[in-house]
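Quick log. Single chain, no ligands specified.
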Amino acid sequence: MSQPLVTVWNEFRHEKTNETIRKIYPKGIHTAIADGLGEHGIETLTATLDEPEHGLTDEVLDKTDVLIWWGHAAHGAVEDAIADKVKARVLQGMGLIVLHSGHYSKPFTRLMGTSCSLKWREAGEKERLWVIEHGHPIVEGLGEYFEIEQAEMYGEPFDIPEPDTLVFISWFPGGEVFRSGCCYYRGRGKIFYFRPGHETYPIYYDKNVRHVIANASRWAALGDAPVPVFGNAKPLEPLS
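-> predicted structure:
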């Protein structure tokens, strides 16, 4: 797979106000994610909520192959016009990777058409992510499963459309399971929802998590997909 240009978006609020989070991600979650992609040879840009146009100007989006979205407490602060622009870009072919609590983000809920609600519990539980689609590019280079020692629990039901491909299921010691790696096709765009990543745990330094995000970034890039043509169509063959 070729190397895309990836823009990592982060609301970048908690890291400025919470000392615990700042110690884990002193330069922001977006920087940790971008550094992980850099380890895999992927070029990145970053954008944050409080920049003009949330950092997602037309100039930035024009050169973005894949947009990674991390948000938690400020979903409502994202301007509707920017969320609509991101949705439109995905339909045109830009890849979108939505991480952890980004399930409630405006771009993701608009593209899913559902509430995207779920169960959750913050108790520092172990998460075991099982690979269930072994031939998928996103899981290339992984074992049968991998574990995160401390994570926020997400549990079913997860109010999303049935994934086009489900590549991970997570298990938690409290008994819950969760569809934690969900692939979708919307228009010409590819979307991957990936569950790990609570802000008070150093999950974005985990080598397996970084590996998955890098694989997903390559998978989600447009490539040479045909452009759909709509409207009245002339026949390709003579009609009698």
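The helical segments are 14-17, 19-24, 29-39, 58-62, 80-92, 106-112, 207-220.
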